[in-house]
């Protein structure tokens, strides 16, 4: 049976993927979005979004994603609510396989994002967006003049702590080891801040609170003793994992698994473009992902014109 070949398939339905869909649909590419079983990206775990342009009173993360999806649908974007299992990018048309579909496409935009690495506690999942965050740039102002904890000892933890120290009353870095592993320059930068303290050889084993974070239970990694500490907010800063497992051997990835890009959105395979956190290990913002989605769609449209 002959398969229909799409003009454009977009993998991912966060701000990058949906913005790409809006621009591509308006450009006549009739995009098909493979949204994933858990559609919407990391903003689906975010309550108040105050830094996305156009919402002077802020907006809830899931509501913003819903509005972006409806906007894409208004211009004719189609959606498949499944995860991608494999892709074949050896030659166009590219093949994208999901649980129930085998798609063929002339162009591909990958916007699968990156997932914050969490501690894996049941109490943590309950309170994400209710006092627990993984993005200081996104959420610092919600904790202005309050006391917060940053979990981690690497570069990410230092950058988050430095940003938070400008806004929060007190920042306590909790690290499960006795020594930080962040770059020395970043350590010095953070240690120079008078409102930043360090707690070594401790780990969070429980988050306290039902509908809102009230405190944490810390365990000493050396003697096993536990203590409860009241706190206004916790920022988990142990890194991010790009969602690129299905791309190994198909695209050039860096040592951490992020897609390597040229000119912002072009990949190592002609006709395959990228948008958002799946290639961005620095900014990781909804607005930068959306901007990349716009660029990816415009590049895809231009590439298709050249093929003609």
Can you put this structure into words, describing what you see?
The protein has about 300 residues and is α/β, with parallel strands linked by helices. About 25% of the residues lie in helices and about 30% in strands. The chain has 7 helices and 19 strands. The strands form 5 sheets. Strands 1, 2, 5, 6, 7, 8 and 19 form a 7-stranded mixed β-sheet that branches. It has a 5-stranded parallel β-sheet with strand order 10-17-11-12-13, with helices on one face. Strands 14-15-16 form a 3-stranded antiparallel β-sheet. α1 links the parallel β1 and β2. α1 runs parallel beside α2 (about 60-75) and α5 (about 155-165) runs parallel beside α6. The chain is elongated. The model has no long low-confidence stretch (mean pLDDT about 95).
Topology summary:
Elements: E1 5-11, H1 15-26, E2 32-34, E3 48-49, E4 59-60, H2 61-74, E5 78-80, E6 84-88, E7 94-98, E8 102-110, E9 114-116, H3 122-127, E10 132-133, H4 136-139, E11 147-151, H5 155-165, E12 170-175, H6 184-191, E13 196-200, E14 202-208, E15 215-220, E16 226-230, E17 233-236, E18 240-242, E19 272-274, H7 286-307
Helix pairs in contact: 1-2, 1-7, 5-6
Short description:
The protein has 308 residues and is α/β, with parallel strands linked by helices. The chain is built from seven helices and 19 strands.
What number is the mean pLDDT? 94
Task: Outline the low-pLDDT stretches.
Answer: none
Helix content, binned percent = 25-40%
- Strand content bin: 25-35%
Rg calculated over all Cα atoms? 21 Å
Shape designation: elongated
How far from one another are the termini?
A: 26 Å
Q: Major sheet: size, sense and barrel closure?
A: 7 strands, mixed
Structural class: alpha/beta
- Annotation, overall tally of beta strands: 19
Count of separate DSSP helical elements: 7
Order of helices and strands: EHEEEHEEEEEHEHEHEHEEEEEEEH
């Amino acid at each position: 049976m002959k398969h229909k070949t799409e003009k454009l398939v977009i993998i991912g339905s966060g701000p990058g993927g949906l913005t790409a869909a809006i621009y591509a649909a308006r450009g006549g590419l009739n995009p098909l979005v493979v949204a994933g079983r858990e559609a919407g990206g990391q903003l689906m775990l975010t309550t108040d979004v105050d830094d996305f342009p156009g919402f002077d009173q802020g907006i809830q993360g899931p509501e913003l994603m819903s509005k972006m999806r409806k906007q894409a649908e208004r211009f004719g974007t189609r959606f498949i609510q499944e995860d991608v299992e494999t892709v074949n990018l050896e030659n166009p048309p590219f093949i994208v396989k999901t649980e129930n579909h085998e798609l063929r496409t002339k162009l591909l935009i990958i916007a699968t994002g990156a997932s914050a690495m969490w501690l894996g506690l049941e109490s943590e999942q309950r309170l994400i967006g209710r006092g627990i965050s993984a993005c200081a740039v996104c959420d610092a102002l919600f904790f202005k003049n309050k006391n917060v904890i940053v979990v981690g000892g690497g570069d990410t933890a230092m950058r988050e702590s430095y940003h938070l120290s400008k806004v929060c009353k007190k920042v306590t870095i909790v690290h499960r080891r006795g020594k930080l592993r962040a770059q020395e320059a970043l350590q010095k930068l953070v240690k120079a801040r008078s409102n930043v303290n360090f707690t070594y050889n401790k780990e969070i084993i429980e988050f306290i609170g039902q509908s809102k974070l009230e405190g944490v239970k810390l365990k000493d990694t050396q003697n096993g003793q536990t203590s409860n500490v009241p706190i206004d907010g916790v920022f988990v800063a142990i890194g991010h994992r790009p969602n690129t497992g299905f791309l190994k051997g198909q695209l050039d990835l860096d040592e951490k698994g992020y897609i390597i890009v040229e000119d912002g959105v072009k990949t190592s395979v002609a006709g395959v473009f990228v948008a958002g956190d799946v290639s961005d290990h620095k900014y990781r913002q909804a607005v930068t992902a959306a901007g990349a989605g716009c660029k990816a769609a415009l590049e895809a449209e231009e590439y298709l014109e050249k093929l003609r």
